[in-house]
Structure formats: C-alpha cells, structure tokens
Amino acid sequence: MSNVRRVYVEKKPAYAVHAKELLADIRGYLGIKTVDDVRVLVRYDVENISDETYKKALKTVFSEPPVDDIYEEEFSYDEADTVFSVEYLPGQFDQRADSAEQCVKLLNENEEPVIRTATTYVIKGELSEEDKKAITEHCINPVDSRETGFNKPETLVQTFDEPDDVKIFDGFKDMEEAPLKELYDSLDLAMTFKDFLHIQNYYKNEENRDPSMTEIRVFDTYWSDHCRHTTFSTELKNVEFEDGFYQKPIKDTYDKYLETFDELYNGRDDKFVCLMDIALLAMKKLKKEGKLADQEESDEINACSIVVPVEIDGKTEEWLVSFKNETHNHPTEIEPFGGAATCLGGAIRDPLSGRSYVYQAMRVTGAADPTAHIKDTMPGKLPQRKIVTESAHGYSSYGNQIGLATGLVDEVYHPNYVAKRLEIGAVMGAAPRRAVKRLNSDPGDIIVLLGGRTGRDGCGGATGSSKAHTTESLDTCGAEVQKGNAPTERKLQRLFRREEVSALIKKCNDFGAGGVSVAIGELADGLQIDLDKVPKKYAGLDGTELAISESQERMAVVLDPKDVDQFMKYAEEENLEATKVAVVTEEPRLVISWRGKEVVNVSRAFLDTNGAHQENDV
Amino acid sequence: MNVCSKKGLVERFDGSIGAGSVVMPFGGTYQLSPVQTMIAKLPVLKGDTDTITMMSYGYDPYLTSWSPYHGAIYAVIHSVAKIVASGGDYKKIRFTFQEYFKRLGTDKYRWGEPFTALLGAFDAQLGFGLPSIGGKDSMSGTFNDIDVPPTLVSFAVDVAHEKDVVTPDLKVDGNKLILFSVPRDEYELLDYDALMAMYDKVNAIIKTGKVGASYAIGFGGIIEAVSKMAFGNKKGVKVEDDLTIDELTAKNYGAILLSVRPEILDQFDGYKLVGTVDDSAVINYKDMALPIDEAIASWTGKLEKVYPTRSEVDESEVREDLYDAKDIYINKHKVAVPKVFIPVFPGTNCEYDTAKAFSLAGAEPVVKVFKNLSAEGIRDSVDTFVKCINDAQMIMFPGGFSAGDEPEGSAKFFATAFRNAKIKESVMQLLNERDGLMLGICNGFQALIKLGLVPYGEIKTQSDDSPTLTYNSIGRHQSKMIYNKVVSNKSPWLRLATLGGTYTIPASHGEGRFVASKEWIDKLYANGQVATVYATPDGHPTMDEDYNINGSYGAIEGILSPDGRVLGKMAHVERIGRSVAVNVVGEQDMKIFESGVSYFK
Predict the structure, then answer these.
(1) Helix count and strand count (H, E) for chain A
(2) Maximum CA pair distance of chain A?
(3) Residue A469, pLDDT above cutoff 50
(4) CB half-sphere exposure, A320, CA atoms < 13 A
(5) Confidence band, pLDDT 50/70/90 cuts, at residue A477
(6) In chain B, which stretches have pLDDT less than 50?
(7) How distant is the Cα of A454 from the closest Cα of chain B, in angstroms?
(8) Which domain holds residue A31?
(9) In this structure, are A448 and A560 located in the same domain?
C-alpha cells in the first residue's frame, strides 16, 4: 500500500477566480463555446507525516475553511467531464510544494514531510478530441510541466543513484581533426570548433594529458557568448558602406571612431576594431577628457557604479549608485514565467553582489501583437498573448515578493518580435560608500557560499541562450530554464544591507552565468574548490553538474580567515545557509576536486585567453 | 498599439514599496497619466534624504528597422529628453545600453546592423559628451528565417533633487502648452549643440517653479502627449488651430512639451504654442471636440482583453455608515517609549518601511527574522519570538509574501508560526493582561484574519463562515493609490485620524478581497469594527473597481477586533514620506503609528 496521502483543495465557487478566468479563456481566446464550466483543484501528495500533524495541516496549511472545499484521497465529478492533472517536471523548483513542506514543519518541527503538488482541471461540456488537445496545450507548457495520471505513487521519497566518476577524454590531445570534429559535434557545445582546437593545443603542449568532461564544460561555460561576448569581440575587417543618401553621416561617424581609436590606443597592437570596442570607445574618450570623474573604479565587475554626494538630514554622505540592465530573451520566449522572473533576479544580482541595495526596477519588453488570434501562432512557438501575460506575471511576482518598487513598465510592439521576445530588466541600487570594500583576494582567504542550494535546473543556462534556435527548441530546452526563488534573494539583500556585514566582504560574485566554476573561479587567480562541500538540493549530482550549475539566488564571498566565524553568525541570523567551499591559493591555477579527486586543474592564463580569436567582414 | 494604455500590465507591479517612489507609474486623481521616468529617493535606512535618482529609456523598433544608426541616436536622445522633461539636468546623465540583434553568422550584411547601431550610439555619446558606462548584448534574435528588429535600448540615469521633479499630468487650468524642439537636418539628424542649448533652457524654465507638467514627445507625437497629460486629472485642452495634423502626429524625438503659467511666456522664446489647459474635460481642435472619457475608453480598450483592468464585480451601492464610538479602549500600562515587535518571515518585505514609520512615531522597533532552516532554528526562533513579545507593548505584522503566499493562500506560513502554543500564549497575554496593541498591514492583515485576531480578537481556527481575505476579483496583483476612508474611531490606532476623512494611500496586493456573509458585515458595522473602506476620490465607499481594487464586499478595507486594539488593513499607510507619490495628490498620513504610540503615553 502507498504511504502517500492525497488531498484535493478547491476554491468555493464565489472565490474560484482562477477557474473563472480559465473558463473565459477557453470560451473566448480558444473559441471553444461548448464548455459550460471549469473546476480547478490543487492536488497535494503528502508523505512522512504523522496523523496528528496531517489533521492540523488540513485546515491550516492545505486549505482555508472560509474559501476552500477539501477532499481527501478523491473527489467526485461527472462521468462526462474531461479531467486531467498537470505537474512540474522533476527537478523544477515548485514554490508551492516547498512552502507547504516548510509550513508543516512549523506545526511540528520534527516532521520531515515530502510533498508534491499538481493541478487538476475538470472541464464540463462536450469536447472533440481537438478541443481537448487545445485545452491541455493551453494549460501545460512542456518546457516545465507535464500531464500526470490519477495513480498515486508508491512513495515520493526519491532515491538517487550514486553518480559515476567524471569521464576523461582518452586520446583527446593527440586526436586527428576528423574524430575530434566528431567528438565536438557529439558534445553539443556553445564554443566554436576553433575554440575546441585551441583546447586540444593546450592539453597537448602545456598539460600533456587528456581533459575531463568537467574541464571541457567549464571552458564552454567560461567562454560562452553570454560571459565573454564572442560576437562583440570578433575582429571586424574590410568595412564597407553601401551607397545611399544616408551613408554620409554613418561613414563620418566611422571615420571619427577610427580617429578616436588612433588617438586613444596610439598604435597599441593588442587593440582591434570590434563591436565591443565601438560600444566602449566613447566612454573611454570622455573619461580621458575628464567627463567621467564620478565613476567608481574597481576590479570587481558587478554593475555600473557612480559616486554620488547624498544629503541625509542636511548632512552630506558619499554613496555609490549603481545600475544594471539584463535581458532574458530566450528563457522568456520558451518559459515566460520563469524566464522573466529570473530576468529580474539576474538584474538584481549584479548590484547586489556589489553590496548595493536594489530599490527600484524598470521593465521594458518587446512583443509581436498580443491580440492576434491563437490560430495564427507559428508552429514551435507559444502564442504571443501567453508570452506577454505569463512573463508579466513572472517578473511582477518576483519583484513584488522581493520587495522592489517597479517604477516603470512598458511594452513595445513590433511584428518581428515574433522571432524572439525582448525581455529587459533594469535596476537601480545604492549603498553608502563606507560600507563597500573593494579588495583583492589574498592566498589563504576563505570563500563562503551563501543562499540557495545547487540543483540540476541550473545546468547550461549560460551556454543555452547563446546557441542557435529552431523549431525544436521548445521541446528540448527543459533543463535550461530556472524558476526564481525571490524569498531567498531577499534574505541576501537583507544580509548585505547590514553595514557590519558588508564591511567584512572583500569581494563577491554571483552565480548568474556559469555556476561554481565561473562564480568562484573569477574571484581569485589561484583557487582550490571542494565540490563535496557545495550544498545540494538532492543527491545524485555529478562533479560536472556541481561545477557548472547556475543559481539565481546564490553568492560567493571572499573573506579574511579571521572574519569567517563572525560572518557565518550574521548569515545564520538572516536565516541563510552559508558554507566554506574554497580557499585562495598562491599558484595561479583553478583546481576543483570532487569525491577526493581533482576534476579540474587548469592554468589561469589559459582560462583567460577566452578561447580563440574570431574575425568577420562587415 | 505602441501608444495605447498598458495600465492592466503596469498595475501588476508593486510601485510603492520602499516608501521612496517619488512618482507612481500613473499620475493624476484618476491615475491615468503614465510617467516617462521612474524616480525614487535614495534608500537611506536612517534619516531622510532629498537626493533622488531618475531612470528613463528610449527606443523605437520602427526607426531602428529603417536605420539602425538613426534608431540608436534617437534612442539616446529620447532617453535624455525624458530625463530633462522630468526635471533632471542632462549634464549628469550616465547611460547603459541594451543591444539585441539577429544571429549574425558570417554574412557581412547581417553584421552591418549592430555595427551601424553602435556607431549611432557612439556618435550620440560624443555629441552629448555623456558616456555609457554599462551595457549588455544578446545576438540571438533569430528564429528560422525571422529576425527581431535591430534593438538598441538606451537607459539614461540621473541624480537630482526632489524639488526639481515635474510629472506629465496636467493640473492647472489656464496653463499654456508650449513645445520646444530642434529642426532635423538633411540627414534626418539633430544638432547636438542646439539640442543641449534647448535642454538648458527647459531646465531653466522648470527651475522657475512655474511648470505644471511636462512630456518628452515620443511615438505618437503631440497628440499622444496632450492626451496622456490630460487623462490623469481629466482636463480639457484647446489645441491651437494653426497646427497641422502632420505636426500633431510627428515622432519628434527630442522635443519637449511643457505646461506653464501664462505669465512667464514672455520671459522665454524659441517655443511653439500648442494649446491651453481648461476644466472642460474635452479635447478641442478646430471643429473637433473629443470628450476625455471617450478618448480614455478608446485608449484603454485596445489591450483590455490581454491585460484586463476590470472583472465582473457586482457594482451595487454600499452603505455609508460612520461609527462614532462612545468609549474607546483606555490603556492602563503607560510607558515612555513603547516597543513594537516586528517579525520577519521568508518573503516578508515591508519590515524596513514599517520599522521606520514606528521609529519616526516614537516607538522602538524590534525586528527579528524567523529561522527555519533546521528544527533547531525553529525552536530557537520560537523562544526568541516569545521573549520579544513578552518584552513589547505592540506587535506589528508587516506586509510581504510569506513563503511566496504558498501553498495557495496568503500568509499561511506567517499564521502557522503564530499558532505555535508558546507564541500564541504570549500574544494572548499581551492582549488580555497588558493592554497591548496589534497591527497588521497587507500580508500582516491576512495573517491576523487567518489567525482569528480580527475580527474575533483571539487566535482560533477559521470556520466555514469566518470573514477572510482571498484573491482579488481581477485574479492578479494590483498596485495603485487608493482613496481610503476612515469610518470608525473605535480604536487606539485611529485616535488621530479624522472620522469620515479620506486619505490617499498606496495599496499593493494579490489577495486583498475581503469576503464575509451579510450577517457578518452587519455585525461588524453595528459594533464599529469596520475601520476603513475603499472610496471614490470624493469619499464615497464604492464597488467601482477603479477604486475598490479587489472587489471587497461592502468596500471593506480594514477591520478591528471587538474592542478595537487589533487593526488589520490592506493599504500601506507606512509607505509615506515627503515627496513620495507626488503625482497623486491627497492627504497621505493617517497617523496610525503616532496614534498607536500615543496610546501608551
């Protein structure tokens, strides 16, 4: 017999806002007029819970008597109704289940309940097979959820196989080009084949050994477009302008750019024309002319930051004002709620890792016509209406939960955004300058990991958005979208806002793109990282996954060894998990160990080459 | 579609938390004039500041599709114009750009788009002498054979003083609308020096304090600007007849429209007279007379199906009772500086604002985070909470989303923690033996009502007929200013508020709909337990969703325990301050915190 208890909770008709909305959507938007009514029930599967706690939880955690009806094990419906249930894919963060577990623990702190949730839909009315399909498609985004049956699982407790050791690519360093290309293709990497050859060269000539899977993935993450802007750093050659009336001002500007280029770089041979340089050169010129005196100079790259005199109760203090914009176009296109939520989470993270308190956000998005008929949706795409409304829900729920004023929201419409959505979050942050240290890491310094735990959902985000996308994207990208966890990022904000805490941090990095390998890897030239200490959401993650999994709500801070205990105490006060995971070392190598074995051991110098040089004509 | 109302989208986002938003996203009494620049006070933890930051954006996909070079230049210019129109000094602006282009491959024509766009941005930075110090790029905007429009969004950031701020909503009848612009050259470009001279002039006019409203001309030209400026307070405008339709609709990026007192017109030159503000609620141009309500209906209708602003609420009339209490609870335990305990749960987010409000009112806030990472942490926290409650005179439940308002229902985590036997005992002791007070706002109100503290005055399990708070009738979060009327004085928390007075207070929540049976509502009114209601701007309790934003039964917004010492309300009375929400006028201070503190003195 199953140990799992099942509970269905349904809003009473007067308060069933969600069911009412869905009914309106099905009748209006999907155009299925034969539907008479819709019921929406939340389903909880619960295990590892005592009778007493379960009984209490029924009327306090799972339901609220004035607005909910509750059914244990099963509920009744008519034979003719269409009934289906939807659950998250395994590994997706489910805030409902997570909060339910936490609430049950409050009823009795010794309980270790396991809870899974699903949503059950009951559709009343005559439906053709085609109608049923349209409705289930409307309710399920295959990127993060799936349909689930009525059968109760035997148990919810998941067991995980002990992962295998990290694979070593035997024979890699001496491989011929053809088999090497084959290997390259099989790995589905974001880097170019040119980069791959660059790596082979390194292992052959410098390391004289074969690389591990973890090392290849770390390079791929470190060098992916997302982190190092491959396109923007590609050298531009043979620049030509097409004839036309408006050619003149553009060409004049290009000449002015070249003139400035010569003036500033004065014959340096390490500089070349690329998009990145065009983007930065005006700033460099103005800075040289003294028109950027307020910029905060620092080795840490967290967000743009300027120094501002602030009047507080008539007294002037120096503050740092920082701002940052971030897009999550690809994730929002395929999973609008999570993509947009983590867009904001990502934008906040940068100033936050710079110890700024983020206090305001702007959201600017681009979409094709959201009033278009669902039948005109392109194959392989979500309808625009679904994208715009669910992304608005995602971004707003993250911002509202973290407690950030969203001061301006706008959406721009252009038919070509049907190719891919534009989802920008821009934030403002600030902190008193005295509270922010910008120091270098010294050998012996300790690196502490703060915040959320590592799961499989964060693998491959940085490389995913840099790949080319076609009609299949929607089905295969599941592992590349994450759900945000605003309450955890909020805890980080509270912690860093305390001046006594912020003053202990020498340097900080977030886990946005690239996970442990990049976030910690960037903090010092020489590092010894122990993956066994990294807190995990569940067992079964292998060394590579632990090294590259991103997270929205994690930070790594560099601390002087004497400050570590005090820092851990502060973190505990703010209800945050903090773990020592790495030590700064003298030798400039990135060393990562897992289960006692080194899975990465590469030189800083090679990592910093950022891959092979790329060129293109314009 | 690029100029239509996105109110149903915008109001999903909390615009007021932090008590630092100088402007709300929509200005005017009717909150229908969208702002172009977001403005906030610096988030100082202690004390008050008059330093503010501004951020605006500029971008037009149609222009960048025609010429990425021009599009980038005008994106920068438009972002600057918005800052200037809002009262900022352009000379201190810093930019950050967002680039988003199609996948480039190796085709050199495809590379031309970002190349020329960046050259445009380069030109504009040097032209203004203002640098971009940040930016992000994404080059993945291709799906099969469709490419996104060349996208370069310019974000402009400025630091300014709170008294410089001007907003778009027209306020003053008789004001003149005047347009400042710079002519385009043969290449459809603007001369930066002329533009900067014009912005200096606009800045000087704003500094006279005689500018009532302003707008940086955008996608929809003067027509868009005048309409959006007029909507907020439902003003009328007589548009000058000598303007042509082309002039009225031109996408004149860089130009700025000001509403100024007529007496300063002759102090400046170089502008074009566009119209005059009046109280007719009609936009007049030549022989066309467009009632403002008609214009608003068409402006808001376009996206109503995608981003609804209304659901089907029964708009029956509601009672207008006021309860003037004969006897208000008197405190026998006086203290000089009362302590208020403010618990913080995962997802709580209003504790900073609330603690500050209590400090300013003369109380000592004690803020503690509930730790739930381990069984030991929970036991510790329970002990800490008990100790803090025993040591305090007041308990304040702050707003937020405890545990993300999951599992399906707000404040469950919050309420569950306070059901703990030890904590419950301390709470009841505070109320029953020490004359203590409790206050809950937003998520805190939800916690109070789910615990039974309102309306019952004690912690108990809710029954089937208990009054409660549930999802807004519109099914999403609502953030805007509400008109909040005080209809009872039977509470120490309301002793300094005006009975029958209407206050303008930020509300921001997804589950604020008060629901109860008719019997319960009658009983609450009879006993003076209905504290505050949702009202129209002129103070009538209402079911109109523009004002009763969640469809609360009887328009009830806040309720009391039977003796009035526990108050729960949805709207955020703590989010106030000098120069907060300046574009929605009205008395903001209900003096709840001061009232609570004075009860102990």
Answers:
(1) 22, 20
(2) 82
(3) no
(4) 26
(5) very low
(6) none
(7) 16
(8) 5-148
(9) yes
